[in-house]
Write a structure and sequence with these properties.
This protein is an alpha+beta fold. It folds into two domains: 147 residues, Methane Monooxygenase Hydroxylase, Chain G, domain 1 (Up-down Bundle), CATH 1.20.58; 102 residues, no CATH class. The chain contains eight helices and nine strands. Helix 2 packs parallel to helix 4. The termini are far apart.
Length: 282
């Protein structure tokens, strides 16, 4: 009889469902779970946005470097068109990045998430954009002095036009990177001090052979387009290549008593073994 009554009470408890306390605990758990998911989702989206903004800044830097090269000296019609196109792209990237930062800031405010790291990153990106905006403004002032019109330097692209311009710039950037090469010219002492070459072998310091350093910094070299560079000025009594390049792909050209320049006769062959050229002169 006792066992039967106990079973009846347990059955009644099961049929009556969870208590109010249990329901409240479950609701609080679900609320916390939703908040965590919302926070993680926002952090994930912001991380993606941060990466895209940084890529836009890098693209602006690259276009600014190209514009600096193009605008040096005389500009024909094609160069002027490219300048305008690149300015349009930079204007679009700047506005797009600023709009995205403003939107991310609003979303973070609405979320009420305590994320000091995210806010710090937003401020850093905003400061980076402000710095680029300042340098771009200086460049635009210089272009106005070269008969560019204010409408040209401040043109804004539509969303679709901006996407097309970004794709074109990305393809051009990839192509340039694929064809990039680097060179440096210096005396034995200069190259060693800059960490470009090391010397091995020899006896008591005599007869050592120079080799390119395996830990050389790219900043020690001048970057060029391997498709376009055909001459490297030397102006030295003696000159020799430290880096490896096929002998029939280049020539040391003499003028008077000096080696005037290194001529690259076959660029494809010359840069095949190494994209880095080191010339030691005396």
């Amino acid at each position: 009889m006792i066992l039967a009554l106990a079973a009846a009470f347990m059955l009644a408890a099961c049929e009556s469902g969870p208590s109010e306390g249990e329901l409240a605990a479950r609701a609080e758990t679900e609320k916390l779970k939703d908040q965590l998911q919302s926070r993680d989702s926002l952090i994930g989206e912001m991380s993606v946005s941060f990466d895209e903004i940084e890529k836009s800044i890098a693209m602006m830097d690259h276009r600014e470097m190209i514009l600096g090269e193009i605008t040096t000296g005389e500009m024909d019609i094609d160069k002027r068109k490219k300048v305008v196109r690149d300015l349009q792209l930079m204007n679009g990237l700047m506005q797009e990045s600023r709009d995205r930062i403003a939107e991310l800031t609003k979303r973070l405010d609405r979320s009420k998430i305590e994320a000091s790291g995210l806010r710090k990153k937003l401020k850093e990106l905003d400061a980076m954009l402000a710095s680029r905006d300042s340098s771009i403004s200086i460049m635009k002032d210089g272009l106005l002095a070269k008969d560019f019109q204010i409408e040209q330097v401040n043109t804004q692209l539509t969303a679709m036009e901006l996407e097309v311009a970004k794709r074109e710039a990305f393809i051009e950037q990839q192509t340039n990177e694929m064809n990039a090469a680097w060179y440096v010219v210096g005396t034995s002492k200069e190259l060693e001090e800059r960490g470009v070459v090391t010397r091995t072998g020899g006896i008591i310091g005599i007869g050592k052979t120079a080799h390119m350093s395996g830990e050389v910094q790219q900043g020690e070299f001048k970057q060029v387009d391997a498709r376009q560079v055909t001459r490297v000025p030397l102006s030295a009594k003696k000159a020799r290549l430290v880096s490896e390049h096929p002998k029939d792909s280049y020539a040391m050209v003499e003028e008077g008593d000096l080696f005037a320049y290194l001529e690259i006769k076959d660029p494809a062959s010359f840069w095949k073994l190494s994209r880095y050229m080191v010339v030691e002169v005396k």
